[in-house]
Amino acid sequence: MQDRPLCTTMPYLHISIALLLSLNIPTTSATRDSISAGQALTIGDKLVSKNGRYALGFFEADSNWYLGIWFNSVPKFTQAWVANRDDPIKNPTSLQLIISHDANLVITNSSTHSIIWSTQTKIKRNNTTAILLNSGNFILRNASNSSDILWQSFDHLTDTYFPGAKLGWDKITGQNRRLVSRKNSISPATGFYCEELDPSGVNQFLLTPLDSFQPYWASGAWNGKYFSSIPEMSENNANNSFVDNAKEKYYMSGTVGEETAVTHHYLDVSGQYKTFIWLEGSQDWVPIYAQPKAQCDVYAVCGPFTICNDEALAHCTCMQGFNIRSPEDWILDDRTGGCLRNTPIDCITNGSASSSTDKFYSMTCVSLSQTAQKIETAKSASDCAQACLDNCSCSAYSFNSSRCSIWHNDLLNLRKRQCSSEAPNSNGETIYLRLASKDMQSLEKHRSWLLIAVATGTIVAALGLFAFILLLVIWRNKIKNSSHIPNSAQYSNGIVAFRYIDLQRATKNFSEKLGGGGFGSVFKGFLDGSTAIAVKRLDCAHQGEKQFRAEVSTIGIIQQINLVKLIGFCCEDAKKLLVYEHMPNGSLDNHLFQSHTTVLRWSTRYQIALGVARGLAYLHEN
Ligand SMILES: *[C@@H]1O[C@H](CO)[C@@H](O)[C@H](O)[C@H]1NC(C)=O
Ligand SMILES: *[C@@H]1O[C@H](CO)[C@@H](O)[C@H](O)[C@H]1NC(C)=O
Ligand SMILES: *[C@@H]1O[C@H](CO)[C@@H](O)[C@H](O)[C@H]1NC(C)=O
Ligand SMILES: *[C@@H]1O[C@H](CO)[C@@H](O)[C@H](O)[C@H]1NC(C)=O
Ligand SMILES: *[C@@H]1O[C@H](CO)[C@@H](O)[C@H](O)[C@H]1NC(C)=O
Ligand SMILES: *[C@@H]1O[C@H](CO)[C@@H](O)[C@H](O)[C@H]1NC(C)=O
Ligand SMILES: *[C@@H]1O[C@H](CO)[C@@H](O)[C@H](O)[C@H]1NC(C)=O
Ligand SMILES: *[C@@H]1O[C@H](CO)[C@@H](O)[C@H](O)[C@H]1NC(C)=O
Ligand SMILES: *[C@@H]1O[C@H](CO)[C@@H](O)[C@H](O)[C@H]1NC(C)=O
C-alpha cells in the first residue's frame, strides 16, 4: 500500500482555513441582553449577556443565515448555539427576531409576517421576555416572574456544551438533551456524530454516529464523583453532578458564571469531544482535551474505502484504485463520504461468477474492522480469494492462520498500523482489496514504470546517474551546511519526528551543551541553518518506544505561552531525543543564583513569577 504524498492534501488545509475566515461576523454593538414584546432584533443587532461573554444574533455561514450564540469576548468568531441549524435562511431581507402575539419567540419576515422559526411553546398568558443569561442560556420567561422559564436554549443544545446545562433525558416529556456535531467546518447543520446518555440504562455517555448505533467511545459509569474512564475529572473541583430521579436523568458540569477562563466544549466534526481554551496571549483557541484521543478511533470518520492514519497530518486517504467521493465535503473536514471506485468491479450476477476478471491488491500493516464474514470452507488463500470473487458484494478478503475472512460492500474503519517491512504481520494484518483488473493494471503499470525507470540504461547511464546524485549531494551540502529534515514525518499536532542523523547534524554532533538535568543533557542546534532549537538527549532510555511516543504526543498538545514548546522528537532504538524551541536567555536559575549576570529588576521578577504561575496553572488545569 502506498500513502498519498502529503502535498496533495495540504492545499485542503489552507482552503478550509480561508473559508472559516470568510464567515460574516456581525459587528454593531448594542448592550442590551433581552427582548420584550414590541422589540425586535434585526441583522447587525446583538444581545450580549451581562458578563459580556456571550452574544446572540443573526450570522452568516455557508451562504445562509442563522440565529445563534457566539463567544462575544473572543475576537475569532466561534459559534456555540444555533436556533435554526436545519432551517437555514437563504435571504436575509426583512429578517427579525421578535416576541409574537402568542408570546413565543419567533424569527419572522417583517414584510410578509411569515414565521420562519418559533420556540413553539404553549403559553397561556401573553406577557414574556427573552434574555441571554451569563451562562449562555437564552431563555424565554414570564415577564412578571423570573423563575417561570417557558423555553430555554439549554434544552436544545447543538454541538456545544455550556457549563450548567443538563445533558440527558427529561423522563416526562421524553426529550433527549444531547450534542450533535456540525455538518462540516463551516455549516452548523446537523452532522454525523452524537454524544448522549447510554440508552441501555448505564449511567454513562456514549459517542456514536447519529444514524447507526455504533458507540466508539464510552465515558464509563458515573461513580458518584466522575465517569470511570475519565479519572482526571476528579482533579478539577468543578461542581459536577449526575442526577437520576423520577422526572429526569442528566449530567451537569461546572459552576455557572464563576469560571474565569473562556472555554469551548464541543463535539467536533471529526467525532471527537474537544475542549479548547481561549488564550489572550496567543489570541487563539488552544486544545486541552479530546476524547477519544486518537482520531482513527472515531467510527467511519474517513468513510468507506479509506485508510485512517493517526500518525499522518492528513488522517484520511483513499485506498488504491479509489478516489474521493465528494471533494467539496472533504475540503470542509467532512470525510464521511469516503471514496469511490475508479472502475466498477466485474460482477456477473446470473451466470458463473467465478469468471470474474477482478484482481486483488494487497495492503499490509493495517488493522481490520471486525465486520468480516468467516468462510469456514476456505482452507487456502486461493480458496479465500475465490470465495470473495464468487460474491458480488465482496470487496476484500484476508487469510490469516488458516482462517478466511471476507468483507462485504463498504469497507469501513481500516487503520494504518506502524509495522516494519521485514515483519509485516508483527503489528497489523494484510488485507486483499478487490479491484477491477483495469485499475489493477494501471497500478501495476505505475509500479513497473518505476522499475523501468530504474533499470533502463546501461551501466554507463547508471554510473552517470550516480555521479549526478553525488554531485547534487556535494552541492547541497555546500550551500546548506546545516540540517534539513527530508524524511521526518509531521505528526497531527504539529510535532515532527526527526531522524537521529538530522539532529546530530543540527547540533554539530552534540557539541554545544546548554545544560544538563536529571534526565539528560541539552544541546543547542539549528534547523535549516536558522531556527534555533534545544535538543534534550535522554540518558536513561529504559522507556519503551510506544510509551515514549505516547508521552510525546501528550506533551505535544500543550501550547501555552509560558511553557516551552515541544517541536519534535527522535526515537531510534535506544536513542531518544526531545526537540524544544530554544530560549535565547538561557535557564532562569542562571539569572537568579549567579552573581556575574546582571541582577534582575523586581518588576521583571514579578513578571517571571506571574508567567511561571500561569504555566503551572495551565498544566494543573489539564
Ligand atoms: C421577506 O419577504 C420579502 C418579500 O416577499 C422577500 O423579498 C424576502 O426575501 C423575505 N425574507 C426572508 C428572510 O424570507
Ligand atoms: C406569569 O406569572 C404571573 C404571576 O405568577 C401569572 O399570573 C401569569 O399567568 C404568568 N404568565 C405566563 C405567560 O405564564
Ligand atoms: C396577546 O396580546 C395581543 C396584543 O398585545 C393580542 O392581540 C393577543 O390576542 C393576545 N393573545 C393572547 C393569547 O392573549
Ligand atoms: C407584562 O409584564 C410587565 C412586567 O411585569 C408589566 O410591566 C407589563 O405591564 C405587563 N404587560 C402586560 C400587557 O400584561
Ligand atoms: C413563579 O414561577 C415559579 C415557577 O413556575 C412558580 O413556582 C412560582 O410560584 C411563581 N411565582 C409567582 C409569584 O407566581
Ligand atoms: C453544586 O451543584 C448542586 C446542583 O446544582 C448545588 O445544589 C450545590 O449547591 C452546588 N455546590 C457548590 C459547592 O457549588
Ligand atoms: C444472464 O446472463 C446471460 C449470459 O450469461 C445473459 O444472456 C442474460 O441476459 C443475463 N440475464 C440477466 C437477467 O441479466
Ligand atoms: C453474498 O454475501 C451476502 C452477505 O453474506 C449474502 O447475503 C449473499 O447471499 C451472497 N451472495 C451470493 C451470490 O452468494
Ligand atoms: C490471525 O487471526 C487471529 C484470530 O482470527 C488473531 O488472533 C491473530 O492475531 C491474527 N494473526 C495475525 C498475524 O494478525
From TrEMBL:
A cellular component annotation (GO) from this entry: membrane
Residues covered by the Apple domain: 347-436
Transmembrane segments: 449-475
PROSITE patterns from the UniProt entry: BULB_LECTIN, PAN, PROTEIN_KINASE_ATP, PROTEIN_KINASE_DOM
UniProt signal peptide: 1-30
Key words, A-Z: ATP-binding, Disulfide bond, Membrane, Nucleotide-binding, Receptor, Signal, Transmembrane, Transmembrane helix
EC number(s) per entry: 2.7.11.1
Catalysis performed (reactions): L-threonyl-[protein] + ATP = O-phospho-L-threonyl-[protein] + ADP + H(+); L-seryl-[protein] + ATP = O-phospho-L-seryl-[protein] + ADP + H(+)
Membrane topology: Single-pass type I membrane protein
Location in the cell: Membrane
InterPro entries registered for this protein in UniProt: Bulb-type_lectin_dom, Bulb-type_lectin_dom_sf, Kinase-like_dom_sf, Pan_app, Prot_kinase_dom, Protein_kinase_ATP_BS, S_locus_glycoprot_dom, Ser-Thr/Tyr_kinase_cat_dom
GO MF terms, alphabetically ordered: ATP binding; protein serine/threonine kinase activity
Domain Bulb-type lectin intervals: 32-153
Enzyme class label: transferase
Recorded superkingdom: Eukaryota
Occurrences of domain Protein kinase (ranges): 508-622
Nucleotide-binding keyword on record: yes
Binding site for ATP: 536
Claim: Transmembrane is one of the keywords in the record: yes
Family matches, as Gene3D superfamilies: Bulb-type lectin domain, Phosphorylase Kinase, domain 1, Transferase(Phosphotransferase) domain 1
SUPFAM superfamilies (UniProt xref): alpha-D-mannose-specific plant lectins (SSF51110), Protein kinase-like (PK-like) (SSF56112)
Gene Ontology BP terms: recognition of pollen; response to other organism
Record protein name field: non-specific serine/threonine protein kinase
